[in-house]
């Protein structure tokens, strides 16, 4: 009851447009979250695509690319929220 998975599979293959002639992108990440004893939900691992493999690294806190991976999850969360609600 302390591990949760935020799965943004609905975003996989979502068509995106261009802004000013530049293509836009959206990720369909998987984000593993841990409920710490203080009651905070903390991300512990992020994969930016739905399929594992060499081209789909798993980002962890303190590792290279962690801040950027969290940013992609926030973007995906926003897109999913706007799409569904």
From TrEMBL:
Keyword Oxidoreductase: yes
PROSITE patterns associated with the record: LIPOXYGENASE_3 (PS51393)
Biological processes, Gene Ontology terms: lipid oxidation
Record-level Gene Ontology MF annotations: isomerase activity; metal ion binding; oxidoreductase activity, acting on single donors with incorporation of molecular oxygen, incorporation of two atoms of oxygen
UniProt entry keywords in alphabetical sequence: Dioxygenase, Isomerase, Metal-binding, Oxidoreductase
Residue ranges occupied by any Lipoxygenase domain in the UniProt entry: 1-85
Official protein name in the record: LOXE3 isomerase
Natural source organism: Dicaeum eximium
């Amino acid at each position: 009851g302390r591990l949760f998975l935020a799965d943004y599979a609905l975003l996989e293959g979502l068509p995106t447009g261009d802004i000013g002639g530049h293509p836009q992108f959206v990720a369909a990440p998987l984000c593993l979250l841990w409920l710490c004893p203080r009651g905070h939900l903390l991300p512990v691992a992020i994969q930016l695509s739905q399929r594992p493999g060499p081209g789909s690294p798993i980002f962890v806190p303190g590792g290279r690319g962690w801040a950027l991976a969290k940013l992609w999850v926030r973007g995906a969360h926003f897109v999913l929220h706007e799409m569904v609600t």
